[in-house]
Structure formats: C-alpha cells, structure tokens
Design brief:
By secondary structure, the protein is an alpha/beta fold. It has a single domain, classed as Collagenase (Catalytic Domain) (3-Layer(aba) Sandwich). Helices cover about 20% and strands about 20% of the residues. Strands 4-1-5-7-6-11-12-10 form an eight-stranded mixed β-sheet, covered by helices on one side. A two-stranded antiparallel sheet has the order 2-3. A two-stranded parallel sheet has the order 8-9. β2 and β3 form a beta hairpin. Bound molecules: zinc ion (ZN). Zinc ion (ZN) binds next to α3 and β11.
Length: about 290
C-alpha cells in the first residue's frame, strides 16, 4: 500500500474511533480452530482461550541453512528487525507491552514440531525446495502455534517461509516479496495475534507485492499487542524454548526441504493443540496472503 494511502487510512481509523467509540479491529488467536468457530463482526473468534506467552520473553532461531537464494547476514538482520518491531511496543505514556523476543543461535532443526517431553526450538525456516501444505501453494509463509488447549499458553512456534514459490527481497528498492514485511506479519501470529480486517494493519492477511508498509505496526497492531501483553504484567524473562534449547543432534543437516510443513506427531497429544496461520496469495494482481 502506498505510504500516502496508509496515512489516510490511519487518519480515518482514528477519526472513526473518536466519533463512534467503535473498537479497533484486531483479533486474538484462540484455542478454537477451524471454520466453525463463532466469530464477531470483525471475524474475531469469540470462543476458546486466547493464545499467549506466559513469560515476558521468547527466543527464536533461524534454521542454519537459511535460504540459498538470500545472503545469510542480511537475512539475519531482516528477521531480527521484524521480531524487534513487536518487542517492548510503546502502549502510550511510555508504558511498554510486556513481551519481547530475542534471537537464539541458529539451529540445525528443520521440522515444524513440538515435543512436550523434550527440548524445543522456535524455528524460522525457509522452504526453498518444496511447499507441501496441501491446497496452499500460494501461501507465502505459515506459522504454526503449539499451545496448551486448556489455558491457551503458547508452548512453541514454528514459522515456515515459502521460498519455493515466492521471490523474496530484502531491500527497499526493487521490492518483490518484502521478507521483513512478511516476517513482521508472522511474528504477530508468533505472539498469538490473529488477522485483522483493517487493510492498513500488519495483521491484514493480504500482502501487496512490492510493498514494504508491513514493516511498521499500525495503531491496530499496537492495540493488539498491548491488550495481549499489558504493561506492568508480572512475568519473568527467559528466551529459552520450552524444555530447553533443542540442538536436534539427530536430525540431518541440509534439510531446507526436509519434511516441510508436516504437523508434529505430538501436536495432537492430550492437552496440546496447534493452529497454523498463514498468508495466501491475493486474487487478481498476484498479491498474497499470509
Ligand atoms: Zn497471517
């Protein structure tokens, strides 16, 4: 979206809220999955427990192979910047949202999975060679949140990037699919935030190719993260993934395409569930959703 249009949208949104008292349109992800979950006028799930990180901090790791299509150092910088966008967000008056993220060492782990009895890693992985989510070849990324079905507490998150079907770029010039915009959207899911129906929000599901507007949170996105993680919330800080940092010593390296996207065998275990949220190509001019 052109910056000028984005600014107009933001202005109209602010005015609409001022005049009518209408709520912003952000939504929280919940433990209710599937198309049959009850929802409100904005499409927000109205049943199930909201997803949330118990701690103040969450770590993430890039799969060590990165993408053969992109320079590793720049990819690290872009991913770190995308996560940082959602960290310690200013909720007003200098009050900061009580959640932050931080990078952990790269990992050889390649699988989208959660092990309730072992170590884990919150993974960011490029799928250069294949994208095997059935019926979703036009997705440009997919984030799977593993959570406690009783409480909504997030236990593990794995983010997969469909570099097999999309041409990602890193800079602000000659933009195709702006990796930072895409990852920034996926980090919203990482934190338990669902799609917004506001076109100027980072959490809007459509991505317009060539746009870098999704690098910057809108008021709608800020309201979402501040509601989910209010300032002053009592929470400890530990970047370590659930059960300890998994080094995946038993997994083969070089697995950019190894078992892409397969749901974890343990994801359906008692009390544990997973929800995948993704970005899908927009109809028409080749836009995409996420
Ligand atoms: Zn999404």
């Amino acid at each position: 979206m052109p910056q000028s249009r984005r600014l107009v949208c933001l202005l109209l949104c602010v005015l609409a809220v001022f005049w009518s008292g209408a709520a912003l349109a952000w939504c929280r992800s919940t433990t209710c999955k599937g198309a049959n979950c009850p929802s409100d006028d904005s499409g927000c799930n109205t049943s199930g427990k909201k997803l949330w990180w118990r701690g103040r901090c969450a770590g993430f790791s890039l799969q060590a192979n990165g993408s053969v299509l992109l320079p590793s150092d720049k990819v690290h910088a872009v991913i770190d910047a995308a996560f940082a966008t959602w960290s310690d967000v200013d909720c007003g008056g200098g009050q900061r949202a009580s959640v932050t993220t931080g990078p952990l060492p790269d990992t050889p782990c390649v699988n989208n999975e959660y092990d309730p009895n072992g170590r884990n890693v919150n993974l960011v992985v490029f799928r250069d060679n294949a994208w095997t989510f059935k019926g979703t070849y036009d997705n440009i990324a997919k984030t799977t949140v593993h959570f406690d079905a009783d409480t909504g507490e997030i236990l593990d998150v794995d983010m997969e990037i469909n570099s097999a079907a999309n041409w990602f770029t890193l800079d602000r010039k000659d933009v195709e699919y702006d990796l930072q915009s895409v990852i920034t959207h996926e980090v919203g899911h990482f934190l338990g935030i669902a799609h917004s129906d506001q076109p100027w929000a980072v959490m809007y599901p459509d991505y317009e190719p060539g746009s870098t507007a999704g690098r910057t949170l809108s008021g709608d996105d800020i309201a979402a993260v501040c509601a989910a993680y209010p300032p002053g919330r009592a929470a400890s800080c530990d970047l370590t993934p659930r059960g300890g940092f998994d080094t995946c010593s038993g997994q083969a390296a070089g697995g950019c395409a190894a078992r892409p996207g397969a749901p974890s065998a343990v994801a359906g275990a008692a009390g544990i569930a997973a929800a995948a949220l993704c970005l899908v190509r927009r109809k028409g001019k080749g836009g995409s959703r996420r």
